[in-house]
Design a protein that fits this description.
By secondary structure, the chain is mainly beta. The protein is built from two helices and twelve strands. It has a single domain, classed as Immunoglobulin-like (Sandwich).
């Protein structure tokens, strides 16, 4: 009996190699402009082994009332190491608008700006209220508060803001005539701390 207990205890102390997983990714930040053409979902993990997406992993977003659901299936896993890294799911236009290249491209209108819920392969999905759609602010998931300026980060660690879409401004010209000029608001870069969830 003592021998069996010793063997059991010894077998429990043998180190086993760490296995790649996927469940320790956390929602970090959500963003949408008013038309839904510029959107992103940022996930973050502090774990070093969150690479295994060998079984189909997905993100499902439902509107308020769950009458519509958009689903995105991840085609591949990530590279190691993953500690203190982000995964960026974004519409094709966010890089052209000044944001970092998304790690995964989601379709326009994937998020429901009026609110809804997110279910995904990670640790902290759930309901969310209406997102800011002013083209600048985003939602920080852990606090539920709006970020003054969005700050998407991709897996490579590139962070930048998605500027407000181009708007038309009426500009006065000599002799009382006027013309339209397209302008883009420039955002001052500022370091916005993000929480490690």
């Amino acid at each position: 009996m003592i021998f069996g207990s010793v063997v059991f205890c010894a077998s429990m102390m043998i180190a086993t190699p760490a296995r790649a997983a996927f469940h320790l990714w956390n929602l970090q930040e959500l963003y949408s402009n008013s038309s839904g053409t510029l959107q992103f979902i940022e996930l973050f993990t502090t774990s070093n082994t969150q690479t295994n997406f060998s079984v189909v992993r997905s993100i499902a977003v439902s509107n308020v009332g769950a009458t519509l659901t958009n689903t995105f299936n991840l085609p591949t896993g990530t590279l190691a190491p993953t500690a203190n890294r982000s995964l960026l799911f974004g519409t094709a236009g966010i890089q052209a608008a000044g944001g970092p290249a998304p790690d995964y491209i989601i379709p326009n209108g994937f998020l429901f700006p009026a609110g809804g819920s997110i279910a995904f392969f990670g640790a902290n999905g759930g309901a969310y209220t209406a997102l800011p759609t002013n083209g600048v602010a985003s939602r920080i998931w852990s606090s539920g508060l709006n970020n003054t300026i969005n700050s998407p980060t991709n897996f490579a660690g590139v962070t930048s803001a998605v500027p407000e879409p181009t708007s038309l401004v009426l500009v006065p010209v000599a002799l009382g005539s006027m013309y339209w000029r397209s302008r883009r608001r420039t955002l001052k870069s500022s370091a916005i701390p993000t929480e490690n969830v």
